[in-house]
Every structure is written in C-alpha cells, then in structure tokens.
Amino acid sequence: MSNTNGFTAPGMNEESATRTVKVLTQRLTALLDLQLTLKHIHWNVVGPNFIGVHEMLDPQVDAVREMTDTIAERIATLGGVPKGTPKAIVDSRSWDDYDIGRALVNDHLVALDKVYTGVNGDHRDAIEVLGELDPVSEDMVTGQLAALEQFQWFVRAHIESASGELKN
Predict the structure, then answer these.
(1) pLDDT tens, 46-93?
(2) What is the pTM of this model?
(3) Is the pLDDT reported for residue 168 higher than 80?
(4) How many C-beta neighbours within 10 Å does residue 102 have?
(5) Three-state SS for 10?
(6) Which residue ranges does the record assign to the Ferritin/DPS domain (predicted)?
(7) Spatial distance between the Cα atoms of 109 and 152, rounded to a whole number of angstroms
(8) Do the domain assignments include residue 47?
(9) Strand, coil or helix: 113
C-alpha cells in the first residue's frame, strides 16, 4: 500500500517517497506528542525553580510546533497525507502516555529528559534511514535534531550535579 497520492516531488520515485512519508509520519507523531507533553509540564510544574522551568518550556513548545508544521508540509509535498488528529497520534505511537500530573520541577524534568532521549534517539535513527531515501527530508530532520538536543541540554542542566551526573 502506498503512503502517497500517486504523485511525489519531481525526481523522487514512488517507493522512496512512500518510505520517506512513513518515516516522517512517525516523526510527526512523536513531535505532536512532545509538543503536548511540554505544554502539559508547563501547566503542571510546581516548586522551587518553577518560573525558570515554566518560562523555559514555552519557547520549546513553539519550536516543536514549527517542526511539526515543517514535517507535515514535507509529507504533503511528497504526496502523503499528514495526520495530526488526537486519534492518529494515539493510534500510531509506540510509547506510553506521559503520566505525571502536578509535580515538582525535578520530577517533571527527570521524566522530560527520558522523553527527549526517546524522541532524539528516534530522530537520529530516522536520519540514517532518510539518508538513503531523501536528502531534503534528511537535512530537515537533522536540523530539528540539533534544536531538540539543545532543549534536552537545557533540561539536563537543571537535573545535573556539579560532577556531571544526572538525577533519575
């Protein structure tokens, strides 16, 4: 079954487009989920350093929202159909829902570090696959990974000891 509408970017064959759309769809799901998780944390974080973390998260939400738009538009460019509905997100993700509600800064940031580890690792895997299929999509996801890794660094700076150990 094809993931495209019978057309794709000029110079790209249907099989490569279909495989690229599949990889990008997985990244879209992960980023939509991340965007919602970041906002959830923003609303529910409490305790010491609340305001710093609260204000750190909104720019991340905005950047991830832009990433989802970029990926969705690339999927459409390749003839695919981007799916951003709540049901599509839940049905296509392979991880558990973020389950922390109102909680202290440290609790959320330790959990968020794990979320970023998963998203970033999967982005890295996608880059490897996309390198064989579509250099445009590969470049796009590579640029996103640079920003996502920086966001994880911001999170880790809050949960890292002076000796460089992460709290868990």
Answers:
(1) 998 999 999 999 999 999 999 999 999 999 999 999 999 999 999 999
(2) 0.93
(3) no
(4) 10
(5) coil
(6) 22-160
(7) 10
(8) yes
(9) helix
